[in-house]
Amino acid sequence: MKIPHTFTIVFNIVIICAVATWLVPGGEFERKSVEIDGISRNIVVGDSFQYTDNVPQTWQVFLSFFKGFSRTAHIIAFIFMLGGAFWILNATNAINVGIANFLKSTERLQQNRIFKKIGVNNLVITLIMLIFSLFGAIFGMSEETIAFIIIFVPLAISMGYDSVTGVLICYVAAHVGFAGAMFNPFTIGIAQGLSGLPLFSGLEYRALCWVVLTAITIAFTLWYARRVKKNPKKSFMYEFDNFWREKVAETHEVKEIQKSSWATWAVYGAISCGLIYCAFAFTNSTISVGNNSFNVMFFPIIAAVFIPFGFYSAYKSVHNYILSLLLLTVIVLIVGVLGYHWYVGEIAGLFFAMGVASGLAYHHTFDKIIRLFLEGCKDIMNAALVVAIGGGIIIILEDGKIIDTILYGVSQTMASAGEVGSVGAMYFIQTVINVLIPSSSAKAVLTIPMMAEFSDIIGISRQMTVLAFQLGDGFTNMITPTSGVLIGCLGMARIPYSKWLKFFLPFLCILVIIGFLLLLPPLVVHFNGF
């Protein structure tokens, strides 16, 4: 049986939603504007639902592609710019050289008796996943993971695993951390603001949730990775990973390390001057972690470290210098997100600059760099177009006036369910709605005001409402075709959506069950903030 293209799957979902607009009655909630953390948001007014005429969607199915393109333009542009930038970077063979050197280092560590018993690869996977899970838990890393797929998928292949393992160790780790977050401003921050709760209260129990979810995800990843390494044909992507295996073969063929040219030193000088300027212009950076803020002299520190380190890297080889540029980009990305509230636009610009700088350092002409960038955009185009059509799903439901009706209808089932049943119903509603609306902030303003009022009526802490929202928001993001981040990551990794769904769905069910079980202890034990 032929597996349909991802575009076909998503377009069929759009058609199903269009059919639903003929069958489900229309309805709307009243909305009011409130300010949360200095941002104005329109929220649902409780007990304001009224039935209206629905607006059946017909030819709008085809228009939804255009509207979805417009709504998700920032993600699509992000994917194109990352694809182009990393295509330039890949053309320098720097990542291949870096992976080869990393594998040599792990082979040397493997000779140590302690590391041999633990397993160096197991340690590497665990540390990477802990870092990305923390990023998801602290500052809500999501879109940023697309940029790391192109690094960790080749690394996973080189270590004897598959492309799925590469996606698990960065994308899935970050999103599990996102679900069990302690300080995520996009879920906890907005939801607690809408509920009238102290910002980031209930930290202790959320930290426990993060530990449980992260530990289970790491254990699953290690089990799957060992299974694939023992028998590569058990991989869901064995045949599809030929592209990456060929890339790994090229890695082993890279034997001659090129010395730096005058172009490399020119790029080094320009970037060093830029860092010196930033060190004086942005001496103190205000870093926000959760509800705490503190000043750190990040740019002076970065300049003081990178200038000598970059000089040494450029002295060793052009490949080492380009890898130092990649490391610098990741560090500046973290500082930008935590200290300057960067989003996909700034991050895309940062990686684009890295791609251009890498090409120039490798002594490519501007014309060569542009051609490589366009080749990268062409390579990632399928993923970008799927993001556009996925954005059309919610547009069909909104234009058909049935999204509020669906929300209202499901919420009424909680009326006589009891505490456990009500919390479970909240969690179920958030999980299902997340398939249609992967944006956590949009979902928060749509559901939290009504859920918070309902929790008051049945005598459940509003903190429980926020926790149900948080956990319900986190898991189904990793399978919904409406998520531009998921489709972008799968596109970068060259994993068909249908293959990913078949692989990840069983583990997703485990995560959903564990998420429900984590909602139960605060109902019987008093935790701080609950």
Features:
mainly alpha, 530 residues, 24 helices, two-stranded antiparallel ribbon, two-stranded antiparallel sheet
Strand order of the largest sheet: 1-4
Rg from C-alpha positions? 24 Å
Structural class: mainly alpha
Number of strands: 6
Poorly predicted sequence stretches spanning 5 or more consecutive residues: none
Percent in helix: over 70%
How many helices does DSSP assign? 24
Categorize the overall geometry.
globular
As an assembly, this protein is single chain
Q: What letter string, H or E per element, gives the SSE order?
A: HEEEEHHHHHHHHHHHEEHHHHHHHHHHHH
| Alpha-carbon distance between the two ends | 51 Å
Query: What's the story with the biggest beta sheet?
Result: 2 strands, antiparallel
Task: Let me know the average pLDDT.
Answer: 85
Please state roughly what percent of the residues sit in beta strands, choosing from under 5%, 5-15%, 15-25%, 25-35%, 35-45% or over 45%: 5-15%
